[in-house]
Amino acid sequence: MAPINCAAMVINAGVGLIFPNTQRAESLVITMFVPYLISVVTPFLSPQISASSFSPATCWRDTPCDARTTASFSGPWDSYNYSPASRTVSPVSIFTQDFTLLSSYPSTANLSSNVLIYDFGKEVGGIVTVQYKAVGSGELGVAFSEARNWTGRASDGSNGRYVPRADGALFTLVTTTSNGSYTMPDASMRGGFRYLSIFTTTDHMINVEVTKITLELSFQPTWSNLRAYSGYLHSSDKLLNRIWYAGAYTLQTNAVPPNTGRVYPLIGKGWRNDAWLGTKGHSILVDGSKRDRATWAGDLGIALPSVFVSTGDFESARSALQLQYDLQSREGELPMAGPPLNFYGSDTYHMSSLIGTYEYVLYSGDMKFLTTNWEKIKLAINYVVRKLDDDSGLLYVTGANDWGRTSQGGFNTAANALMFRTLITGSLMAVWVQDEISSRWEVKAYVLKAAVNSAVFNWDPIVGAFKDSNVDSSIYPEDGNSLALYYGMASSIHRKSISDKLLTNWGPIGAKCPELKFNIVPFIESMEVKGHLAIGQTNRALDLIRRSWGWYLNNPYGTESTFIEGYLEDGSFGYRAFSGYEKDYSYTSHAHGWSTGPTHALTNYVLGLQLVSPAGAEWILAPQFGDLTFVDGGFTTPLGKFSAKWRLIPGGYDLSFDIPLGTIGTLILPAIKTGRPTVTSDGKELDLDEYDGSTGHATIIGVTGGKTAITVWY
What we know:
The longest helix has 24 residues, at 22-45. Among the domains are: 3-45, no CATH class; 81-217, Jelly Rolls; 505-607; 608-713, Sandwich (Maltose phosphorylase, domain 3), CATH 2.60.420.10. The protein is of the alpha+beta class. The chain is globular and about 80 Å long. Helix 3 (238-253) crosses helix 14 (597-607) and helix 6 (347-364) packs antiparallel against helix 7. Helices cover 29% and strands 23% of the residues.
């Protein structure tokens, strides 16, 4: 009998005995047993994996390899790339339990009765093998932690029960041997950690000498070369370079094999990461490497654009988005979280999936994906269009689940900013597929914009910022005000005062979040960074990136390679400790894709390379300088490599770009407000199509692809 049929029969029989009432039994099967059943039978439905079936230069286990084998761009920026050169890695240092350096690795180390801490030097994840010699008998224990704070005899939190250290450790029996080896079970694969703690437990005398530690990396499963990024960035600021690449590496650790999700329903002790994530693809983007290891739609709004300009992992992105449409309800609602969670009830996350769909098609040029899913996309857009208030044109939120903010509902500002962007991007996608509904959605977008900027509704003219909703002036939210700038919902006369108001939340290590008190949330800060850049407040954006992302990246207690889900104002790693995570500080994820906004922001705004139509057939180059002296960067689409570079010189700057032939673009060139600049190329002066003295920008349209170098003189 097929394993899934057998398991289903057992569960149905058991439920029938416990609950003779058929309706109650069916409800229990749907809400509790079905997700568990999926987790149980996953090993039978997906290719079997074996700890001995890997080699350093291959993809994850039996996963088909992507054709990509080399990076699209190579140069001095490669030194900032955190990604390992091999799928098999080992620690770099060995510490005692009090973090006294014992030795560098490789080196043998004696456990005796001590705890040894093996530091991989960065975030990693996968299957660990420990080789050892032993005299005596007992148990060998291994535990994992992303942060230095939770090393020792129990792992940091990941199983979702919010019980500190409930993940515990993995154990294996040890007897006298000169060639012992322990490989952790596949179901216990640890998706994200930096530190591996090894110890013994025994009532007898035992001496264990650890001779070798290896880790088979599980992330980015379809890549044989983990450093084969399709994008790059290099600037005059080394910290910003490190931040860009740490964002890219965070996203890479979030691209996982589809049978390595965290199980649901949650287990009480230990952890299991062998749930099926619902995709037919070979790799999928999830929220975090350690946890939750599921696709959360809201996270995609920040994660996807950063993926596209850095790793260029269209496959994992497509898997995550297709999952949304595969699980769409009859009414059009998209899931908040995919399998094995299968949560619904969030208008904001629903719209994030739609905006993410636009970003995916914009960078990938995957018109087949768009046309295949178009009717579902329309159904999803119309699902939220039906929630527009007939009188005001504003979105009235009824699906109130959200990212963790204190409250959601009604004419919420952040939700209306997402609605505005959903209508605008929906309209653009409709143009791409030649659907006449485009103009109707666009009209609704600008009706909404007019209403939300009115003092009758969400705008507070005294404070100079948006209230949380039309009836709630208790806070002036970071998410709503940031998105209003980023997505262009804020009126031009309001933009400067919104940016000023956002600055009042800043502290020495980031922007304090009014809608989640005591917390600093890089997900929302990512929106703020892009909001400042969208209105040309470059120095403010760079300042916030350095003080928040720079603080964490330089924090020796963190991963020093990826970005944290969030943290408290006092600098402790207890994100949502008092508002959702029940004081389990160790539960915080230290490699969370929703925190990678600067990677896209630095490419899109500071380098200034932006796409306008699918795959970059049309593009814009609009650099912003801030306090930098040069930026060099690029990314890859199916049309080819897009790259640009600007460098300040006395009296102006040099700007060069290499864009695929057959494309057409617009240059928006920073200048000064006191007079038109002179633009030259190959010794010839170029005509300007527009000069805006109020902003000091010159525009040249109809620029063809190819290699071009210009100089702008003030």
